[in-house]
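Long-time lurker, first post. I've been practising inverse folding by hand and with some scripts of my own, and I keep getting stuck on stretches where the structure tokens seem ambiguous. Below is the full token string for one chain I'm working on. Before anyone asks, I'm not after the true native sequence, just a reasonable design that respects the backbone. If someone could post their per-position residues I'd love to compare against what I wrote down in my notebook.
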């Protein structure tokens, strides 16, 4: 008889290689951990500039000093004391909602053109990326809560206009 014997040994007396259980268990563990990590990264909250601007408007509209201050870019927040910010937003009169007319993104900067509910004012806001989220960095003149906090430069919009005009239609 040329096949394995009844005891599982080969005719030449060697046992067939046993399944390396330790390697199998380690491989399964690595696969489970890798898959879990990938799912975590996919489900981790990534917020766009439009959502942040809506949160900012809502916080200012509701007079929520801390929430609105937390959404300011570092360059703006370092120029404004939280107490001064809170006093200013109590009188700001931001509408609760707006519609986004246009979003221009270049690298880590976004310019959002919004139309406010109510008076229909069209305003340009500047936001910058902060990790996986965005923060407000440039205020339109009509919504400049504190003149000292304004860092908006019209040249930013000109830069976007040039880049868009360079894109073929």
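-- Answer (accepted) --
I ran through it position by position. Result:
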């Amino acid at each position: 008889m040329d096949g394995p014997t009844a005891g599982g040994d080969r005719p030449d007396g060697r046992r067939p290689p046993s399944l390396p259980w330790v390697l199998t268990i380690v491989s399964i563990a690595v696969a489970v951990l890798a898959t879990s990590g990938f799912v975590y990264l996919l489900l981790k909250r990534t917020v766009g500039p439009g959502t942040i601007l809506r949160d900012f408007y809502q916080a200012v509209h509701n007079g929520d000093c801390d929430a609105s201050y937390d959404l300011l870019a570092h360059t703006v927040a370092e120029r404004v004391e939280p107490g001064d910010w809170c006093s200013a937003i109590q009188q700001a009169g931001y509408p609760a909602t707006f519609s986004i007319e246009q979003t221009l993104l270049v690298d880590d900067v976004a310019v959002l053109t919004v139309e406010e509910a109510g008076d229909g004012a069209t305003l340009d806001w500047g936001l910058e990326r902060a990790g996986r989220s965005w923060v407000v960095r440039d205020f339109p003149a009509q919504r400049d809560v504190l003149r000292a906090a304004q860092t908006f430069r019209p040249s930013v919009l000109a830069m976007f206009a040039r880049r868009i005009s360079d894109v073929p239609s």
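A couple of notes from the structure itself: The two ends are 78 Å apart (CA to CA). The chain is about 40% helix and 20% strand. Happy to go over any region you disagree with.
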